[in-house]
Amino acid sequence: MAKKKAKKAVVKRVESVEESSKKSVIENENRQLFWFFVVVGVVFATVFVSYFFVESLKGFEYGGTNWTVEDYGQFDVYHARFASLYRKNMMYNLYLRNDPRKNNVPVEGEFKSFKRGGYISLSQEFESCRGEVSRVMVDLGAFLKSGLGMDAIAVATSDAEFSLRSETPYVNCSNTLDRSVFMIDVGENGVVQDDVNRFCYTITVEDCNDITSVEKFMTEILVAHMGG
Question: Average pLDDT in the 116-134 region?
Answer without folding.
Answer: 94
